[in-house]
Amino acid sequence: MKHRILVIEDVAELRGDIIDTLECLDFEAIGAENGQIGVELAREYLPDLIISDIMMPLLDGYGVLEILSKEEPTATIPFIFLSAKNSTSDIRKGMNLGADDYLTKPFTIAELKEAIAIRLEKQAARKRVEEQLRERETEFRQLVQREEMLKSLTKQIRTSLEIKTIFTTTLSAIRSLLGIHRCSFLWDRTDVMQRYFELINASEDPEISNIPQCNLFLEIAALGELILKSNILQINNVLTDEQLNDISKNQLLALGVTSILAITIKTNSGQIGIIVCENFIQPRVWSNNEVQLLQAVGDQLAIAIDQGELYAQSRFTATTAKIQAAQLEQALVKLQQTQAQLIQTEKMSSLGQMVAGVAHEINNPVNFIYGNVNHIKNYVHDLLELLQLYQQTNPNPSPEVEELSESIDVDFILQDFPKMLNSMQVGADRIRKIVLSLRNFSRLEEADMKPVNIHEGIDNTLLILQNRLKASKSKPAIEVITEYGDLPLVECYAGELNQVFMNIIVNAIDALEDDQSQRQQAGLPDKSYIITIRTQLIEPDHVTIIIMDNGAGMTEQTKKRLFDPFFTTKPVGKGTGLGLSITYQIVVEKHSGKLECISEPGQGTQFWITIPIRQN
Prior knowledge:
The chain folds into four domains: 4-128, 3-Layer(aba) Sandwich (Rossmann fold), CATH 3.40.50.2300; 160-313, Beta-Lactamase; 326-442, no CATH class; 453-612, CATH 3.30.565.10. By secondary structure, the chain is of the alpha/beta class. The strands form four sheets. A five-stranded parallel β-sheet has the order 2-1-3-4-5, with helices on both faces. A five-stranded antiparallel β-sheet has the order 7-6-10-9-8, sandwiched between helices. The model has no long low-confidence stretch (mean pLDDT 83). The chain is flat. 55% of the residues lie in helices and 17% in strands. Residues 119-146, 318-348 form a coiled coil. It holds the Pfam family Response_reg.
């Protein structure tokens, strides 16, 4: 990718020469004829380097540097002065203001090339340092994340009551947390007659093959003596460790063990257990932080084991409590769902108030503009006729008039001015329609149930969503086909029914955009995307609104959960899972209607909304 350089120079010929030179040197160059334009272009394009003259109209080079050096996005851009001012004081002033270099006119291409190369290299070096800092920040975040994992693990250990689950979870988490090859747990079963360590559970790295299946503390007696003596056994390198005798070293090396970290735990019942961490292939230097982490996990494991033993002694009571907890959790989830739905409903109500208020505020100035455009067109028509008459009656104007006429291009103005006024009138009319649609969509004044035109609500919704339906660089247009039947006015909550249309049509747009994105990724040819909206009168007292798309459709499993609160197929942060749940509530509970979904993979999706014409 080419480096982009902004050249600020008021002398057009020199500016052009510099730009040509930079482009020959394989740079992308942008020109600005004065300091003010240079500041605007720097903000807009964020070039990799700026070359600026000093003596310029409106805003000199010093002013440009002062402004850009105080703004966050442009403050780090390398800045080179290129000026005819070559006194020591001028150069000192420029450098004191923060310039990275100062070249004097006349200059050679070699000088310019060298100055640019040096500044760009320094800028690249700065970015490399920043990248290193970001890497350090990432390492720190990983350390914090590891601490959080420990907290989470501790919580899991403390809250679990199944002994087997406690061991499995703990050992697997320790192995993952410390990045070791095997982690195991032993009970010290030593009695008066014999020392014995029972292997209870172990977690091994599946990527390491040929890990010996043995109990080190049972095979090598010296390890048991060392751990029970000091409660901590830390061996960074079996080959060089001074705690082990030669026999023990050879035994461990024969098994492939290179490093060991082990600690003891003690339960309230007096049992002594051992957590053993082993590394194979290469030695491992255990840090103090890792030893402390293992001890912290060991303390929590001992507490969890005590809890597990109590659980085993009171299974009936615990089972009863578990059932009660499940019932309470179910009630809490239902309460949270109801609360979330109430919050969402309140948000939509507040949104309706805001939309209606904004529409009202926009409507007044738009009406003023729209009402005066015709008068302005008449005035302009009269002025242009007067100007043309003047040109006909005075074909030889004074030199001053002729010069001004050429500079402002009067002929172009005569042609373009009426077109501009027509465009203003069309734009004002477009705004008026959008404002009317927003007001009709919010229906704030229609909080009570009343007869409304269903088609008007659908049309207003489509107008509001017009921007999402239009084509863009990344997606084709979505065609909307409306097939309206002859419907009577339908008694309903107009604002809430508009929300139903909005939710379903937005979901259809999302589905079509997702299908288009997947087809692009799979290298499939583009297809036409269509949303069809059909209304019809069924029986004498019900109407049906069908909204269908020709997207990818959905599976039966998805359809079964479609109207469940918080269920969504969208990525995290893209949807709350409440839209269709609230839509179902509005149609079924508030309007005594039915909401059905018909869909199969590859066959698109249809939503059938059926509501009575009159509410009981």
